[in-house]
């Protein structure tokens, strides 16, 4: 049994309309979810295949960190799918620096986040003080590296060039990536 804590405002998303999302997670990840809507604690119990159930807590955590349930459930599609969080606050010196760093990652009108997502093929969400990534190993690496470049103060133009280079490398290697259709 694993315990995962998620923000209050994401509990409704985790449960879904009439419990639909919760049931889908339980069925597909072969787990049982016990959600305490008072404090945001979710108990994840394995009820089926233990290997499949290992992804259960990550799915719950991903939804808690701002991912749409269908993006979080993508973790079950392939054994190589990864979920990673980058703590923006840890890379910041103070509150003003945190806001600036978060703004750099989002970009004007969300453009930088969208480009990270489109060019890497990974799902990218910025929620609270974290940047979340769901994708294959190469996709996650590309987004992580781009985010670290931005947090270290690299100009957006060089980060976009880096992402385009990675995108072309992945395409050249014949790696499949899902084009975000949101």
TrEMBL record:
Keywords: RNA-binding. GO terms for molecular function: RNA binding. The keyword RNA-binding applies. Pfam families: KH_1, KH_PNO1_2nd. Gene3D superfamilies: K Homology domain, type 1. InterPro entries: KH_dom, KH_dom_type_1, KH_dom_type_1_sf, KH_domain_protein_archaea, KH_PNO1_2nd. The keyword Lipid biosynthesis does not apply. It comes from the Archaea. Residues 1-81, 82-152 form the K Homology domain. Signal peptide: none annotated. PANTHER family: RIBONUCLEASE Y, RNA-BINDING PROTEIN PNO1. This is KH domain-containing protein. It comes from Haloarcula limicola.
């Amino acid at each position: 049994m694993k315990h995962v804590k998620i923000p209050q405002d994401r509990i409704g998303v985790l449960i879904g309309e009439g419990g639909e999302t919760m049931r889908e997670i339980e069925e597909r990840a072969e787990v049982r979810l016990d959600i305490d809507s008072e404090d945001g604690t979710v108990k994840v119990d394995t009820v089926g295949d233990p290997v499949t159930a290992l992804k259960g807590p990550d799915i719950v955590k991903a939804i808690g960190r701002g991912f749409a349930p269908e993006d979080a459930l993508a973790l079950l599609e392939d054994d190589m799918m990864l979920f990673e969080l980058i703590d923006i606050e840890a890379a910041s010196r103070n509150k003003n620096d945190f806001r600036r760093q978060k703004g750099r990652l989002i970009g004007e009108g969300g453009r930088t986040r969208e480009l990270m997502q489109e060019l890497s093929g990974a799902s990218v969400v910025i929620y609270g003080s974290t940047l979340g990534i769901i994708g294959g190993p190469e996709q996650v690496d590309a987004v992580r590296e781009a985010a670290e470049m931005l947090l270290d103060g690299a100009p957006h133009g060089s980060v976009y060039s880096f992402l385009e280079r990675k995108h072309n490398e992945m395409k050249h290697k014949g790696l499949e990536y899902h084009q975000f259709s949101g």
